[in-house]
Design a protein that fits this description.
Chain lengths: 220, 86
């Protein structure tokens, strides 16, 4: 059965079509959901894509967290449904407190749009379940606020529960402990700053992002 | 009867969190001839008016707004000032 992936569009989201295309290319079925929708229809997984939801006013993700669809997303996530936040989507998941910590301005105050090499640090999530710890992936980033910040206690918890999914080989933005992506304790909610959909076709220079989306589709 | 309060909320980065903007400003000041400046921190300020029965209730409301929306407690601290609308 084809896995249906709902891709949520907020005003200011700009990566939704790329994500749908990439999901379809690995055998899933991506469909757009509007932020004012009350429910998630019958999707098997949800992706919050990148962009500038609600203009990133106040803080990145701060407004999007109150969009009507988020109640359904939070319920779906708490019920074990796979939810992935990419870039701005990751920021929204932290503001919604589905993931701990926060994303702050890059250390050098530069907007970064470049390939990055990631190391898979845990396979206990819906994105990384098909991979091995230590695998390296080339996936680009595209952000100004990707510097992951959390308290020492949160960091210790992330480590204890193997919830750090990806680390940067060469930390581009100052993120705590080189963190590029994390999950919740049960691994069904994942947030990452790199864009897997931008590494999902040979023409894009890397297909490593497709491996992550296959993980999402494969077990969804 | 409700009373109107002018509210000022100062949002600042929590101690211990690096502030690249503040650091950049601090480094730029000597070039303009201002030496001896340290500890520059950049934040934001919000101004609005709240109607409440008394100052304690107004403060409670603003604290709830900050906790839920106006600031992110993971990285930010808030300082709230209230005064009667003159």
């Amino acid at each position: 059965m084809t896995v249906k992936v709902g891709v949520v569009v907020f005003p200011g989201t700009n990566c939704e079509h790329d994500v749908v295309e990439a999901v379809d290319s690995v055998g899933g079925c991506g469909r757009l959901l509007w932020h004012k929708d009350a429910g998630l229809a019958d999707v098997d997984a949800v992706i919050l894509p990148g962009g500038f939801a609600h203009g990133d006013y106040l803080r990145t993700g701060a407004m999007a967290r109150f969009s009507p669809i988020m109640d359904a997303v939070i319920r779906f996530a708490r019920g074990g449904g796979p939810v992935v936040g990419i870039c701005n989507g990751f920021q929204i998941l932290t503001e919604a407190r589905l993931l701990p910590g926060a994303l702050y301005k890059n250390r050098d105050l530069k907007f970064l749009c470049q390939p990055t090499r990631l190391r898979v640090a845990s396979t206990g999530s819906v994105l990384t379940r098909g991979l091995n710890v230590g695998d390296e992936l080339d996936i680009p980033i595209n952000h100004f606020e990707g510097n992951y910040i959390c308290s020492d206690r949160t960091l210790a918890e992330l480590r204890e529960t193997s919830s750090i999914m990806f680390t940067y080989r060469n930390n581009p933005n100052g993120a705590t402990s080189d963190i590029a992506g994390i999950s919740n304790k049960t691994g069904n909610v994942v947030g990452l700053m790199p864009h897997p959909e931008r590494a999902a076709h040979p023409l894009l220079g890397s297909t490593d992002g497709a491996l992550l989306l296959k993980g999402l589709i494969g077990g969804g | 009867m409700s009373t109107a309060f002018d509210v000022a909320v100062e949002v600042s980065l929590r101690d211990g969190i690096a502030d690249p903007e503040g650091l950049t400003i601090e480094r730029a000041l000597p070039a303009l001839g201002f030496s001896g400046v340290s500890g520059v921190r950049v934040g934001k300020s919000l101004r609005f008016v709240v109607e409440a029965s008394d100052e304690a209730e107004a403060r409670q409301q603003v604290e709830a707004m900050c906790e839920r929306f106006l600031a992110n407690p993971v990285i930010e601290d808030v300082d709230i000032s209230l005064s009667l609308v003159s």
